[in-house]
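Appendix C: a fully annotated inverse folding record. The material below is reproduced so that readers can follow the format used throughout the book. The structure is listed first as tokens, followed by the designed sequence.
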């Protein structure tokens, strides 16, 4: 079909149409970019075929719109408004001439766009005198990627030959655009790859199938110490793999090439790398194969993890040091453990000084990497006034760091040539000295880390690490001192709540046991007390206060002193406990309470009588001489909770050989929850003590209750009361058995005093002193056990014989010159000075005897 041009010329000859194909091919061959190609293509087609206006439309990446990206118009044509309108609009598929060609993937012809129903730019086309138009798709393997449209001022009838030609040109243009874009993508990819390689913080090293380096980025140059020019083409194994690992590397590469089996591809592993100077260091490595072509290429991504390993090592050290420092409240032992941990892990030599509370500095720990030089290091550290600058650091509270210790520093440290030589032999290359700074900012000492034979050089990072270690050491010192002070206070308060010593009750043995559950700083709530009430009456009490700590201690003090005060005017134990209940309710508002047992003891002809009352407390147990065990003590409610605790009392009589055991619930609950001592089990335990002394009974109960338990779950208090057998008099003498306890010497003196009618006063006083010394000696030196000490006195005319027998192995008597300042030897000195004759006999035990001649004048004592 012929086309009539607006300029009045006739139809274009077919030769021009064939010429345009050749011209377009030449343009595409010469163009280097897509914009250049499309612009020159518009000019070529328009000028060759006589079309006056052209535009190129590109499909958006989202595939939803098509937009004008390039336009051209012939000289003399007023086309700017039309071109501007084209660039401002975007068409959807099927809309407008470009949208229609895009949607149909076919060329299209419009004789007059000003009258076309699907041409949104018709108004501006009429203004610019644009009428005839055709368009064709730009096609590639991906489909339609764009549209080219041409216009003329004249109305133009369709030309099928021209449209067919444009379809061919559209294919050529599409292929050319895809090729240019692909080449650009490759170049961009290579540029990005190069930029990434150079900017990467990790080392990137690639090798071919022969193991030769083909890529070596800037990070690899900096890490391994080779330039890229030095590395490229060389075998990678020789460059960066330590000698001991090269055989494995080469074998692995060979196995992969032969079998395709790989142990490291696609995995992240930690191995050892080697620098150009031969030094080795830890690296993290990930290897990947580039592409699937053969022969293959491999790229390794390598990261120097020396610093990370160092941090991990130091973190592990701090964790271990923290565990050591927290494992013991003996800070000297803990600091010694830290120095042993530090050497050789982080230093060759470690010294710790502690600033005492009186302002003096004391060395508590020294450790050296060479055991043979350790004693030399300790001796040198003791002999130097200010070793390594520790004194200065302690005074100023500021760390000192010597990356490289200069020789003159060693000379300044010690002017003594021998000390200087010793210091140099130990090694003194680099050091970090930090204060032991407490949480409150005070300085508690100093820590020195020194390198020597290892050649280690400390840097600023080590200063920070050492400061953290010093802070933890200071915390351990501070906590230990605080714990010690609190323990001292708690112990003092605890002791103030217990009687300093028990009074002597004639004919009665009283043995206490007390173990608080608190770990040093927590005061217990259990208490006991024994005190006289009248000339022949004694009060014995045991109790348990709710809770632990200062509040419990306050209630314990209230209970103990209230009991003592009330018994001054009230001897009935049930009424005494009722008044204690009233005092707690009146003076305490925190809801705390207690349980208690109070016994009033009086002597009877056959033994003792006790009136016992209980306020919510476990009932005391009576152990009879025949092994019978019975509970006693009345009943009542806990004290401090109710206005009327309903306390009642009960009388129990004890004869010689009987014992009364008062205890708190810690005795039954000590092993809870794994082991509970039931009432039946406790009764059997007490029954097994028949015939034992009060001391032995208390020991057995304590041992059985605690067992392997190191710390009691609850406070434990036990009070064992036993009625002693009276002294046996036979003619002019007596025999008495004494238990190995602190009261035994006093009991011996009381027994001797009962012979006042048979022995003159001066001799009696000497006998009391002799008895006291001999019994004290037996208590101190006899073997531990339940065997009693036998005291015998015989009077034959003017001679009095005193003897003390125990189950011990005896001794060779030797009287030395008495030293007034000595705590030993005094007893035999007194015996030798007072007795007219004395000696030692051993047969199944030890018997020490002494004789006095009462006919001789005795000095008044």
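Designed amino acids, in order:
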């Amino acid at each position: 079909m012929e086309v009539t041009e607006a300029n009045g010329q006739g139809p274009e000859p077919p030769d021009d149409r064939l010429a345009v194909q050749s011209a377009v091919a030449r343009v595409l061959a010469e163009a280097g970019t897509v914009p250049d190609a499309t612009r020159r293509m518009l000019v070529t087609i328009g000028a060759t075929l006589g079309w006056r206006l052209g535009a190129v439309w590109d499909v958006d990446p989202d595939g939803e719109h098509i937009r004008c990206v390039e336009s051209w118009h012939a000289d003399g044509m007023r086309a700017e408004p039309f071109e501007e309108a084209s660039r401002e609009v975007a068409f959807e598929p099927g809309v407008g001439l470009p949208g229609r060609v895009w949607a149909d993937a076919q060329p299209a012809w419009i004789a007059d766009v000003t009258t076309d129903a699907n041409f949104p730019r018709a108004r501006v086309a009429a203004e610019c005198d644009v009428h005839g138009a055709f368009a064709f798709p730009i096609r590639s393997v991906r489909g339609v990627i764009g549209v080219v449209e041409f216009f003329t001022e004249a109305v133009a009838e369709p030309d099928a030959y021209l449209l067919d030609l444009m379809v061919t040109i559209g294919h050529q243009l599409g292929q050319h655009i895809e090729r240019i874009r692909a080449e650009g993508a490759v170049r961009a990819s290579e540029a990005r790859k190069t930029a990434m390689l150079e900017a990467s913080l990790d080392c990137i090293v690639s090798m071919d199938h022969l193991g030769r380096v083909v890529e070596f980025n800037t990070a690899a140059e900096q890490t391994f110490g080779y330039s890229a020019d030095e590395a490229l083409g060389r075998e990678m194994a020789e460059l960066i793999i330590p000698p001991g690992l090269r055989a494995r590397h080469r074998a692995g590469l060979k196995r992969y090439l032969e079998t395709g089996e790989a142990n490291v591809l696609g995995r992240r592993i930690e191995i050892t790398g080697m620098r150009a100077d031969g030094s080795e260091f830890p690296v993290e490595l990930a290897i990947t194969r580039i592409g699937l072509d053969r022969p293959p290429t491999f790229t390794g991504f390598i990261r120097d993890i020396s610093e990370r390993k160092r941090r991990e090592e130091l973190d592990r050290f701090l964790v271990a040091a923290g565990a050591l420092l927290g494992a013991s409240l003996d800070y000297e032992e803990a600091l010694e453990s830290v120095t042993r941990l530090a050497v050789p892990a982080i230093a060759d030599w470690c010294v710790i000084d502690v600033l005492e509370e009186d302002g003096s500095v004391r060395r508590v720990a020294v450790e050296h990497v060479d055991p043979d030089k350790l004693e030399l290091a300790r001796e040198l550290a003791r002999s130097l006034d200010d070793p390594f600058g520790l004194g200065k650091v302690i005074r100023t509270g500021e760390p000192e760091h010597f990356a490289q210790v200069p020789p003159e520093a060693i000379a300044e440290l010690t002017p003594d040539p021998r000390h200087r030589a010793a210091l140099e032999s130990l090694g003194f290359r680099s050091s970090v000295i930090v204060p032991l700074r407490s949480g409150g900012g005070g300085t508690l000492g100093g820590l020195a880390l020194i390198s020597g034979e290892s050649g280690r050089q400390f840097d600023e990072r080590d200063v920070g690490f050492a400061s953290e270690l010093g802070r933890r050491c200071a915390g351990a010192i501070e906590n230990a001192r605080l714990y010690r002070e609190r323990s001292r206070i708690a112990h003092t308060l605890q002791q103030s709540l217990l009687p300093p010593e028990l009074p002597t009750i004639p004919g009665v043995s009283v043995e206490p046991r007390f173990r608080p559950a608190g770990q040093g700083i927590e005061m217990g709530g259990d208490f006991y007390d024994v005190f006289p009430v009248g000339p022949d009456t004694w009060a014995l009490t045991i109790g348990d206060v709710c809770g632990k700590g200062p509040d419990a201690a306050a209630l314990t003090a209230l209970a103990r002193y209230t009991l003592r005060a009330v018994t001054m005017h009230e001897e009935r134990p049930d009424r005494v406990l009722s008044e204690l209940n009233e005092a707690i309710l009146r003076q305490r508002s925190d809801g705390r309470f207690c349980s208690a047992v109070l016994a009033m003891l009086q002597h009877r002809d056959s033994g003792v009588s006790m009136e016992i009352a209980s306020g919510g407390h476990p009932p005391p147990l009576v152990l009879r001489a025949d092994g019978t065990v019975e509970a006693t003590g009345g009943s009542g409610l806990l004290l401090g909770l109710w206005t009327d605790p309903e306390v009642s009392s009960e009388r129990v009589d004890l004869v010689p050989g009987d014992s009364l055991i008062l205890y708190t619930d810690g005795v039954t609950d000590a092993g809870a929850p794994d082991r509970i001592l039931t009432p039946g089990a406790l009764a059997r335990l007490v029954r097994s003590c028949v015939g034992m002394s009060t001391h032995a009974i208390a020991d057995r109960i304590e041992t059985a209750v605690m067992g392997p338990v190191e710390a009691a779950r609850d406070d434990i208090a036990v009070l064992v009361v036993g009625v002693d057998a009276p002294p046996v008099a036979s003619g002019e003498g007596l025999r008495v058995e004494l238990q190995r306890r602190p009261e035994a010497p006093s009991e011996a003196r009381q027994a001797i005093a009962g012979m006042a009618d048979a022995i003159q006063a001066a001799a009696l006083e000497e006998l009391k002193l002799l008895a006291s010394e001999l019994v004290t000696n037996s208590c101190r030196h006899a073997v531990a056990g339940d065997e009693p000490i036998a005291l015998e006195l015989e009077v034959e005319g003017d001679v009095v014989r005193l003897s003390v027998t125990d189950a011990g192995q005896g001794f060779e008597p030797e009287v030395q010159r008495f030293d007034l300042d000595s705590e030993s030897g005094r007893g035999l000195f007194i015996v030798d000075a007072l007795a007219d004759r004395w000696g030692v006999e051993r047969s199944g035990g030890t018997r020490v005897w002494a004789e006095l001649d009462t006919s001789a004048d005795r000095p008044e004592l």
